[in-house]
Specification:
single chain; TIM Barrel; 6-stranded parallel β-sheet; 10 strands; 13% strand
């Protein structure tokens, strides 16, 4: 899953495309590089940034970008948003998947919007109240979201889970992180990757998004996201070995090459 952000406030500026021509070109290139899906975000949800924008601005950004991407490639399009109004507009513009970093918990209408559209849903680990960073906390929050999805009528086969690397923090600047104080945030992220196989018990495909994230920068003293590609790919490979089915990445070409080599070596 290649990442295209049309949000200039996003943490990795290399993922940002601010015009329809840029979006179309990026989508076409990702398809050539071997992506199976493109995730388009119009509002950054990075916990450590002040990134809230008006919903009408998010809608304008994401609908324009989805139409541009679909005009340039034949890949499935995922809309990265926690807001039901934005999700509804994204689906109308042609999105096939809704990627909600709050696991259907931020906006009470989100699950219903997805269910009525018969779209796929990526539900990420998220808790409104303080939660443990241990794997049991991640699994608990995902089970809660799975229950919300089931009650709303989302098809069980259309659900993908994501453990939310980078979103369990002691504090944040927006609504989209899970408060966690029982361990350092970067330790939690490492433990999730190392024990990802525990989430296979939930019997859902697992999406992992580690690309260029801040735990890598903290551990390796790499302040700029531009310097984090190689360790990102290492984390992606380990994630696949531990059960990940879908890799959300800024580095489609390099990630596809690494995963192809992994498959050849495992054959």
């Amino acid at each position: 899953m290649g990442i295209i952000n049309v949000s200039p406030e996003s943490f990795f500026k290399g993922s940002v495309r601010t015009g329809d021509e840029q979006v179309a070109a990026a989508a076409k290139q990702m398809e050539r590089d071997g992506a199976h899906m493109i995730d388009i975000g119009a509002m950054s949800t990075a916990p450590y940034l002040e990134t809230m924008i008006p919903v009408d601005m998010e809608v304008r950004r994401i609908t324009s970008a989805i139409k541009a991407a679909k005009s340039a490639c034949d890949l499935h399009i995922s809309a990265d948003t926690p807001r039901a109004e934005t999700a509804r507009a994204a689906l109308a513009a042609g999105a096939d998947v809704i990627n909600d970093v709050t696991g259907l918990k931020y906006d009470p209408m989100m699950a219903d919007v997805i269910a009525k559209s018969r779209a796929r849903a990526i539900i990420c680990a998220y808790s409104r109240s303080e939660i443990t960073g241990r794997m049991l906390g991640t699994a608990k929050s995902l089970r809660e979201s799975r229950t919300i999805a089931r009650k709303a009528g989302i098809n069980a086969d259309d659900i993908i889970i994501d453990p939310s690397i980078g979103f369990f923090r002691p504090e944040g600047k927006n609504f989209f992180f899970s408060k966690m104080t029982d361990m350092p945030w970067y330790v939690r992220d490492m433990q999730v990757i190392s024990h990802l196989s525990e989430l296979t018990a939930l019997k859902k495909p697992i999406c992992i998004s580690v690309s260029r994230k801040s735990f890598i920068g903290h551990l390796l003293n790499l302040q700029s996201p531009e310097d984090r590609m190689v360790p990102s790919i290492a984390c992606e490979l380990i994630s696949v070995l531990h059960g990940a089915s879908l890799i959300r990445t800024h580095n489609v070409k390099e990630t596809v090459q690494a995963l192809t080599m992994l498959e050849l070596l495992r054959a």
